[in-house]
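Reopening this ticket.

The earlier resolution said the output was attached, but the attachment link was broken on my side. Pasting everything inline this time so it's all in one place.
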Amino acid sequence: MRKLLIPLFLVTAVAVKAQENVIQYVKPITGTQRMGHTYPGATVPFGMVQLSPDTDTIPYEMNGKYNPDVYKYCAGYQYEDKTIVGFSHTHFSGTGHSDLGDFLIMPTTGALQLNPGTADHPESGYRSAYSHSTEVAEPAYYKVKLEDDNILAELTASNRVGFHQYTFPGTGQAHIILDMMHGIYNYDNKNVWTFIRVENDTLVTGFRQTNGWARTRIEYFAMVFSKPIAQYGHANYAKDVYKGFWRKFDQTKNFPEMAGKQIRAYFDFNTTPGEKIKIKFALSPVSTEGALKNLQAEIPGWDFDQVKRDGQALWTKELNKIHIESGSREEKENFYTAMYHAFINPTTYMDVDGAYRGLDMNIYNAGGHTNYTTFSLWDTYRALHPLFNMIQPGRNADMIQSMLHHYEQSAQHMLPIWAHYANENWCMIGYHSVSVIADAIMKDNAPFDVNKALDACVTTARHRSYDGLGYYMDRGYIPEDKNGSSVSKTLEYAYDDWCIAQVAKKLNRMDIYDEFMKRSRNYRNVFDGNTGFMRPRLDDGSFKANFDALQTHDQGFIEGNAWNYSLYVPHNPDDMIGMMGGKRQFTAHLDSLFTMELPDKFFAETEDITRDGIIGNYVHGNEPSHHVAYLYNWTGYPWKTQERVRMILKKMYHPGPDGLGGNDDCGQMSAWYIFTTLGFYPVCPGSDQYSLGSPAIDKATLQLENGKTFTIDVKNQGDKNVYVQKVLLNSTPLNRLYITHADIMNGGTLTFYMSNKPKK
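Inline output:
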């Protein structure tokens, strides 16, 4: 057999292409200014630790009332702030409400200060000024200079362990502060109890229990220092009436047990110039013993740079599941930053041995799969979980197993609505676990008991006492005078019910299919033919008076107005279009949505939307509109979909601190970007179809978990060439405006031919 000789330059070229450093394109700082609510700190894909700087201590309430300024700090960090308070270990990415901010650590020098101080007088506390010029934010790595104390702070992480490295000046007054009072969306009574135990001169353990968004949340830790503690102590700021007989001891200094609701501890060291003090800080939902096991399993040594490399290798593996080619560096930065944000949540919620805390506060073992938490399902069912079904099917299946565990442990016998840290927080509407489960089952990514999963969906959907469901079941709509946001709820319940029906049909459970297909048509009951909009109805059956289709407040909708929400019938666009006057009239309606002016007064009362997230009256910064630009595909004007989605990509996303037009919402905004950039989108999760749009890259290769690859090849792509002339699937003309999940999973090539002129 003759050997095939390949020129060396070709081998080198292939190797260079295969080893492209995609980490360089990820900008974690994107979305940290204004409305994005992302954080810039260190985490690994789907990691339990999110070690990141917090830039202020804005309280949730002031004078007994909600403090609206706190909304800016859902992720703990705002780019425009001038000081850093410290580095805490748990954060949400992109949410519109918050919690967490556990176990804040801050290194300082000089006279000990245990108060964080204020932004306008940072010298009054332990916070420090910093500059973005010394700030570096990469996947699994964060660095910044704390200017007031001349300390270089560096952070990295494994799944369950945060790794700090602080380079100190020479001093006999080096302090590490552990603030157990600090939190995000904090208030005086949020801490139920905190506990710190100094086990020896390098090991400290403890826990924190809080009553916040998650009302019964407990988190354990194990903290190890790289050098022995010289001395330590704490202050308790709680006004305790009863103090027991612990007064026999001086507990404030070098006493190994610290307990109370409002504790700040400190650990002192002597340092030489340039000396590094390192801290490994492990979390556990179960116990301090579990935290210590996590620490020993994931970061047994002290090589900070190696842990950083390991974390970035994990990111490289995940980011390379989609390899794109583009002549635009900005496009690569947008895309891989979106991939990064999409792979932060849901988060791991179990120890290395599989142990985790359930909703009933008992300890369980995941038993062979990863248990996850942080389910922002009102957002993520739309595109994030469909994205996972495509390129993270194994993880998505584990996430559904976690949802089914939630159901089994729930006192209400319901699937999660918005769940985190062994708690249901009941945020937002619908029961969109149903959509996530249905999407996986309909796409044959269901390595679990599908009939049991369907039973959980049905039980959840029949829970009459939940958020107007009894009215919905009896009347086919929710009366606005009985239960607010009634139109939004009716529409979203109807969609979820359609998802249940599809699974029931696939499993040949036709009684369930008939029941829920009937319920899925309830969107018709809130449509007002006289106005052409979905409109709230009252208990007596009449439509609500004084209806304003532009108003976002007190009109029967949540995070949207009638213009946007009236387009939410993803499971039956054809019927919706017919109700609204037919294809031509509906197309004109969509055109008006994108081109009309929405005066500021119509969203003045909504904290989650600013002008940044709006195009005309199309609100991309809120999820109910995310499918809307694709609806032109149902009206005979697909070129308008192509034009609109490319416009949205340009207007709503760019790689910078203010690069997101709204809350990233645990990756949903980013998942929209990923799908749309690739050229298709899941308008109706629970179906197997992806609606075609206009790809914004030259080429993309999806590395599928089944070992196959799916390639999107775009001919003549450019900023002006947004219109699709023809599409080939595996060299055969595609005479439809969608591809199926099987088309992708079977592998092959989808080829787009682009032009600067629409094909009408």
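Reporter confirms the inline version is readable. Residues 1-17 have pLDDT under 50 and may be disordered. Residues 486-506 form the longest helix (21 residues).
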